[in-house]
Amino acid sequence: MSQSTTVSVSDINSFKIKALYWANHFKTVLLLDSNDYPHQNYQSKDWVLAVDAVEELSCNENAFEELKKFQTKCKEDIFGYFSYDLKNEIEKLQSRHGDHLHFPELYFFKPRYVFEINGDKVTVNRNYPETFEIIEVINKIQVQDTEPQNILLQQRTSKNKYLENIGAIKQQIIDGDFYELNYCNEFYSEGVAINPVDTFIRLNEKAKAPFSCFFKHNDNFLLCASPERFLKKVGEKLTVQPIKGTIKKGITTEENDKLKQQLANDVKERAENVMIVDLMRNDLAKSSKPGSVTVDELFGIYEFNTVNQMVSTISSQIKEGVHFVDAIKNAFPMGSMTGAPKIEVMKNIEAYEDFKRGLYSGAIGYITPSGDFDFNVVIRSIFYNAIQKYLSIKAGGAITFDSVAEKEYDEVLLKAKSMMDVLNATIQ
């Protein structure tokens, strides 16, 4: 930021909530919140709120090339997302399912206001006295939380059909069509009204995930509590951190330690994880200096607020002459949300799933003027179209030869539980 002012705020947690309420009066908002997650591999921007689009890029074709031009023109930090269905631009693929949410395939914007918080310090990209005037307005906001209504969710794919499809996927694995496929389901409600800001605040408090975000563009909302990084670039270094392997949290520390050890030793979960690590190594290699791709951590067990996960970390050095947007494109969509081999499983995902993924299993984050960036994986999220009054939660898991259908379905429900809890939602 060329011009900015930093001030101290006495009650920083209250300020964060009020700032989001203030921002929600604008048409375009993106909050990125790391929730002070303690693990060093997750350090990025601690808390940044980008508000009001001065310039924006919204497109459904030629998206990556358009982003290159937009980022060059802006000369400041830009914020936005890549939707999963950009796969059709990268490979010869199609998306045939209906779209009930209507997010653009790619959207980035240069914000009018940028707030960053470190400790009790708030930095705003405004000079004195405008910064103090904005903060004074925010501090005067009266927050009145609304109670969630009882929401009934329908399953896009019935439980019986979901279990049947897992059997068919496993048969294809036996036949040698692919090794692993990420299969998801949608839980949705029509004609429902929610308060997106209140709902996000409850979700963020419950999950405290390192890649949480609140995104608003006109009447479309993403309320995200993602634990997973897709891809980060700092200087020449590229880093991916795929998650494969999930187990519930224990009630006591002793119980949770046993569950984490159980996950660490789970042969199926380790097999899932290593297949995606190999895939992500290959994706990174397309953009990296020969011999620079390194597995920094394999099968790391990370404790989050609602579940325990198996996370691996792979890094590399970007090859000279490779545009940073091409590095993103070469790794997209992320292997943890597709499977292996990637093109074949994406064809089959389209055949088995009954909904358009859209922004789900895409990536949201920021890009700096120098081409550094950090993007999450859009999972553990509530999607909401306020005009259509359409609400959606999507969740899934990796199907392998060793998968047990009922356990896979239970994992889907475990991943959806946080979102359902904050909505006071039940499945019909």
Shape: globular
> Beta-strand percentage?
25-35%
* CATH top level label: Alpha Beta
The CATH topology is given as Anthranilate synthase
Largest sheet: 21 strands, mixed
Count of distinct structural domains: 1
* Poorly predicted spans: none
| N-to-C span | 49 Å
CATH superfamily: Anthranilate synthase
Write down how many β-strands occur, each being a DSSP E stretch of 2 or more residues.
Answer: 21
Annotated CATH architecture: 4-Layer Sandwich
Structural class: alpha+beta
Helix percentage: 25-40%
Alpha carbon gyration radius: 21 Å
Identify the quaternary structure here.
single chain
Molecular structure report:
This protein has 428 residues and is an alpha+beta fold. The chain has one domain: Anthranilate synthase, CATH 3.60.120. 32% of the residues lie in helices and 33% in strands. The chain is built from eleven helices and 21 strands. The protein has a 21-stranded mixed β-sheet that branches. The radius of gyration is 21 Å and the shape is globular. The model has no long low-confidence stretch (mean pLDDT 95).
Notable traits:
single chain; 428 residues; alpha+beta; Anthranilate synthase; 21-stranded mixed sheet; 11 helices; 21 strands; 32% helix; globular
